[in-house]
Amino acid sequence: MLKGIDPRVTPDLMDVLMRMGHGDELAVVDSNYPAHALPTRSGRVVELPGLNVVEALRLITGLMPLDGFTDYGALWMQRDGAGDTPDPVHLEALEVIGAALPEGAKARSIERQDFYAHAPQSYAVVRTTENRAFGCFILRMGVVF
Question: One MF term in GO for this entry (predicted)?
Fold first, then answer.
């Protein structure tokens, strides 16, 4: 047990975050996402049972800096046919992400099929027990100054 670390941060999550570097991406997904069928660069799937995606994002962004040097620090999956109109799960998550983004950085939406094509380029996947559809996000690792 470590002091000052939220006990919901699992050893697997800590290991993944510690191995990531600037520009690496982390997919944080809902329970519908085929995490084991779409392997990532590391092949790692971190399970966070009992946490919804908003709770997981709050936990992760408390440890992981988001990137402010590219055109996005985070991506969120669009609902089919909805374009940039966020669902309630996106609105809740974007509050958390927005608070963690460095000044000038942005969170952008990405069409669902493009998300499925992009996510396997991530370093790893964190799967939550979020049951709201389209509750999937990609966080891009920034730097600590």
Answer: fucose binding
| Domains contained in the chain, CATH given | 20-140 (3.40.1650.10)
| Residue 90 annotated as catalytic | no
Task: Report which residue type is found at 80.
Answer: D
DSSP sequence for 16-53: HHHH--TT-EEEEE-TTS-TTTS--SS-EEEEETT--H
Which amino acid, 8? R
pLDDT digits (tens, 9 = 90+) for 79-138: 999 999 999 999 999 999 999 999 999 999 999 999 999 999 999 999 999 999 999 999
CB atoms within 10 A of CB 44: 19
2 pLDDT tier (thresholds 50, 70, 90): confident
The pairing of strands 124-128 and 44-48 is parallel
Contact 30, 76 (CB under 8 A): no
Q: Which of 22, 36, 90, 118 is catalytic?
A: 22
3-state SS of 102-113 is CCCCCEEEECHH
User: Residue 50: which region, alpha, beta or left (left: phi > 0; alpha: psi -120 to 50)?
Assistant: left
